[in-house]
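Practice problem: predict the structure.
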Amino acid sequence: MKKIISLLIMMLSLNSYAQENSHLGHIPLKDLNQNQITLDKYQGKKIYIKAWASWCSICLAGLAEIEEISQKANNDIEIITIVSPGHKGEKTTNQFIEWYKGIESDYPNITVLLDEQGDFIKQTEIRGYPHNLLLDSSLNLKKSIPGHLNSEQILHSITN
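Answer:
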């Protein structure tokens, strides 16, 4: 019953957190090899993004769920995580990459992108971690959900 009530509350409040028509495809990001990338690469797919930090124990506990969902995702959905080095208490880029190399083998299917300038967290108004975002296939922000979502809640939010 708790799950159902939590899901109903979440669904009723989802769009109140989304900025209408917030196109996020142009924001400069990097992959873990320091290659420049933008979300434009994923144009045409629905995107689930988890914003997280290495110091956030709730975020770290949820990586296994993100790994599981990434393994099951079909071709028209992209699962991405974004970390903002040097912002909101996160390690520097080099420190984060070195740290993540130590756990990367546990999460081979997770895409981690770096928001070094903090533009992504500013534009999406992320105030705390973990934070969940859903983008439509045109890379517009559709839902912004603060807090931890379990696998069931993530899959539900992606499909609705």
